[in-house]
Amino acid sequence: MVSLTPLLEVRDVVKHYRLPRERLLAAAPVVQALQGLSFTLQAGRSLGVVGESGSGKSTLARLVMALEVPSTGQVLMAGRDLQALDAAALRRARTDFQMVFQDPFGSLDPRQTVARIVAEPLEAQGDSSRAQMRQRAAEMLEAVGLRAADAAKYPHEFSGGQRQRIAIARALVTHPKLIVADEPVSALDVSVQAQVLNLMQDLQDQLGVTYLFISHDLAVVDLVCDEVIVLYQGRAVEQGDPDTLFHAAAHPYTRALMHAVPRAQPGARRAALPLPVAPVDAPGGCAFAPRCAFRQHRCLEQAPALRPLAPGHTAACHFAEQVLASTPD
Ligand code: ADP
Ligand code: MG
Question: For residues 134 and 151, what is the distance between their CA atoms, to the nearest angstrom?
């Protein structure tokens, strides 16, 4: 039976962080990390989230993993609001979603054996015997292309790419429904990135996991994702399938991101975003207006909402049709 409830739903999520006051009586400055983000992710699909550093990607990952709570809005996992769960229910729900982090060096405890590291989520769950955990860790190591014999080794005996395989094995060990991968290949050599991405894709085909796949690199999400959201300063500015974003991007920011990185070359050295630097003050307008080559007066006064341009393609730009009609460079 096909379930219509999405595996993950992010509903109008706002997250701000209050920074320390600079002076005693000054107002505490607030960082708007996410400014009203909404999307759904169906089981078995994979959604990429791309954007520059500081656009709110890791904040989103932490909210989806229930490591933090939204300032307003909701994160629903299989229809259940994570914030409404009590501690025991949250612990049970947690086995359904696991995370792969960017740094394959910092994220694995150097004092633990690989067997222990991979089995750790099972241990936290608490209902497997030692023998079962050992068995399952060995299976997962083989599933990610390592050897069962590697279980007795320590993280320092492995390369960055191998460590990320270990992190993926750990993330998969509880049979999670959702994997949140925050820049999983960004710290790896370019030559190793494609291997890890191919592995993640194969695992999805074999195990049917769902990915929320975060990257600053559009070429990386292109390899793994069915659909992509482009984030700019905590807002979705465009959403569509990777082909649409590469061939018919309707938001000037997406165009700039594509320009910066050649397709099919994840991790390739990228050009700086070719954006005009034209400081304008547009507090009520489009957040991208100060950097936008398509900017018109309206953009400074009115913030554009996401709107549909074609089935499965939305963009938040007043002049999306003009952007589409212009020659991609
Ligand atoms: P990305 O992962 O896309 O680089 P982040 O989600 O890490 O972006 O950050 C988004 C914005 O929120 C940035 O301006 C960042 O400085 C700010 N931010 C993130 N986490 C915190 C925090 N714990 N406290 C204060 N500001 C934060
Ligand atoms: Mg980040």
Answer: 9
Cross-strand bridge partners of residue 10: 39, 75
Report the alpha-carbon distance of residue 125 to residue 128 in Å, rounded: 8
Nearest CA to ligand 1 atom 22: 17
Residue 267's pLDDT is what?
Answer: 67
Phi, psi angle pair for 300, to nearest 5°: -80, -15
Q: Which protein residue has the closest C-alpha to ligand 1 atom 27?
A: 17
| Three-state secondary-structure class, residue 62 | helix
Among the bound ligands, the one closest to the CA of 232: 1
The model's pLDDT over 50-94, given as tens digits with 9 standing for 90+, comes to 999 999 999 999 999 999 999 999 999 999 999 999 988 888 888
Distance CA(123)–CA(80), nearest Å, equals 25
> Could you say which ligand is closest to the alpha carbon of residue 33?
1
Alpha carbon of 32 to ligand 1 centroid (Å): 9
Distance of CA 176 to the CA centre of its chain: 16
